[in-house]
Amino acid sequence: MSLKNILENWSNYRRDREAGGHHEYEHMWGMAIDLNKCIGCNACAVACYAENNLAIVGKEKMTKKQGMHWMRIERYWGEPDLDKLSQSSSQYQEHGANFLPMMCQQCNAATCEPVCPVAATFHTPDGLNAQVYNRCIGSRYCSNNCPYRLRYFNFYSYYESSWPAPLHLQLNPDLSVRDKGVMEKCTFCIQRIRVAKDKARMEDRVEKEAAVIKVGDSTFRAAAGRGKLEDMEFQTACQQTCPTGAIVFGDMLNPESQVRKLWDGHQVSLGKTKQTKQNPEKRGYRVFEALNTDPCVMYMERVREV
Amino acid sequence: MSKHRIMGLFSDFDQAFAAVADIRAYKIPGVSVDDVTIKSPIEHPEIEEVLGERPAHVPKFTLMGALFGMTFGFLFLASAQATFLVQPQGGKPVVPLPSNIVLTYEMTILFGVLFTIISFVIGSRIVRKRDTLYSEMVSLDQVGVLLEVDEGKAQALKDLFKAHEVVEIREEVVR
Amino acid sequence: MQTKDINEQIKWAQINKDVLRSMENPRMAYWVAVGTCLAMLMCAVVAEIYQYQVGMGPANLNWPQMWGLYIATFIFWIGMSHSGTLLSAILHIVHADWRKPIYRFAEAMTTFSLMTAGLFPMIHLGRLWNMYWVLPYVSDRGIWPNFRSPLVWDAFAIFTYLTSSAMFLFIGMIPDLAICRDNAKGWRKKLYTALSLGWSGTDRQWRHFRKTYLLMACFLIPLAVSVHSIVSSDFAMSIMPGWHVTSFPPYFVAGALYSGCAAIITLFILLRYFFRFEEYMTIPILEKTCKLTFVIAMAWSYLNLIEFAATWYGHDTAAKEVLWDKFTGPYSPYFWAMLFFGSVLPFTLAFEKLRRHLPTMFVVSLLLNVGMWLERWMIVSPTLSLSYHPIAWNVLWPSMVQWAIVFGSFGWFGLLFLVFVKVFPSVSMYEVKEMVYHRRRAHVEDQAKYFHRRLSDRQPATDTPSP
For chain C, which domains are there? Predict the structure, then answer.
């Protein structure tokens, strides 16, 4: 009975963010991206298109900003030095652009989640913002409330035009092709996560005990029976493709994982709106963390000579 | 002895009220003001003064409706949320009070309004056949005073109406 | 100069006759209006069918700007719906009897603009056919809507408001429907007999009626305020710069009352002209409405300034940038137009000469509503064009599909309203009678000469004793 449910579990339901709400985690997938290593080659974006059945919308719709690039390489130029620029023949700056690969930040206090009227986007026990395509009715509020603008909407039906035969044969069978009117975004390659988790379970690699794990300032209640995955047991498509290895992906709840070590090494922690660093030279930062979205992706600032 | 239903139609409202006031003063023995039904084209708070206090139970139902809406609304929302644990959201409690207050507020008003309307429809005895002594002049500009009296008192009542410049008297006999 | 709200010597039979006449024998102009509205509606229907088939792409939305004119126009219509019922309820509670000749069409306007507004959240959905998922119904899969979402609050609020205001309109109309029933023939007789619910004007019915109407008025005032506050939380609950504003709920409510009052003036003048309601929709009543509109306009302007000041002196740089962009950026012509129509133009309402000049008031009221529509657009689009992430900065011009649907919504509203005025009495007959009845009792011929007069009026004859 739901009423009984409420009365018995009231305090449980009211539990706050530090304890992860009424939520037992299995994993907390996170990323660390080294911008020093990023060369802006866009291979990650291409890999993402191939892996996740992203629709190819064509040049015209792309310029109208109706593209579906879950992974996008953003280019930023610094303040131009106009004197130098006028002397050189190139229209670009000497240094070229700064690159920022942006994919869904899988925020722990995501702004997209509470505004969805039908609960199509929610938080999984893996610490991901899942998007249920079947449930989505396309109110697009989540995208409007995403400060990163990392959600993409199927403005048209692409399944006929995007993969003309025989290209439809290269579609990934592990996940669906989305129809018009549905919001979608980076999933941290959830299909690969699923495969790895299932494999671990089949091989009986599970943690028997529930645990309380502290990651930086956040505490997570880890569920019993969660899969015990090796670090780098699988990779996301972008990570796998990155020629310079700029992208590191892994489980933040695993103290041995590379990604956790990178976060700790850069003194960046979950559950904060402002990082308190012992050593300000550390390059790690999270995008818009002052908005208290608590993103799970850490970037390591690019260092350039002046 | 048969009963007579008599309706006098007055075009002067003050005269109609005076007639009712006479009945109230027992000018006709055995005819009480409680038997009087006034049919009026407009809403007169003055009528109440002539007729004496008559109950209308609408506010009680409104209160009941509002309270029901409030409790039902909150429990409905909270039970729905508590059974829907599959979709928790980052950083949010399962039963969020701020948003539930907003929705409970709306449910309070919705059920308050619905109960009010239902009690109006039931309490005013509105959805039923109009009695045969309905005159279309009542919806125009005349006031009708309707009474059901014994045969013997019918004439006295008609005289009283006539003394107050009644425009028309309608009568029917009921068994 | 006409100074009395209504001529208290008017015959009641005349009131019935005038109002019932307005419901009969539509003239050529009526059919032309119906045809125009139908044509406008067809534009929207065609555009919506196209959009339904193809997807939201033709609406020219994109990933930085997911909402466009649909949501802006949704707020516009919701706002328009606020004045009728809210003002009617407030004026009813404070016993302002000048509401009586004009509240009926104002409440009808409320109901119909809500019915128009309700279409927009549906139209703007990517998967329109699944819109019922927003409703909390018991499903086998145990899935519920997300009660945290302001869009679900919208659904609750609009449903409650539509139900309540439609019932408020209907209950208030029952005695009038009885009048219609007593005077109608044919299909109208059947319709009114069913709708008047057997009303016969007994004291029991009036007693319950009065309490019911008063209680509903009491409910509708906080309800109307809450509805637009909830609509404002669509924006205020988000974290976007320019939307995340604490003063949005009162700002939205003031804007809603404002556009609603302006629309009441427009329809007032139209009905007065076409139905020859000069006896009921009198110039003094129009003047009172205009004064009310002026007050609300000033409240709206004040809240606007508050918002600017709070942003300007605050520390939210992103919000400041959005504000500055509204003043100087690509949307600035519309923004300045909004400020002109919303804050400068209403000063015409402060002058008696202009207030009493119907053509001026007609144009002004339409322009005020243009300003209010621009306001809603200026809430939605500039923020989306200049959100936090620089890569998503982008200026968007809505496509023809969006414009057609917005255009057609006016046709839909007009059509509903046109049907209403020919099927239902657009002036409350029984309440005008009440007004006349009470005013006649309070009327003293000798004193009336001295009241309600201006310096410019002719002096009364000197032999009358002063009061």
Answer: 12-448 (1.20.1630.10)
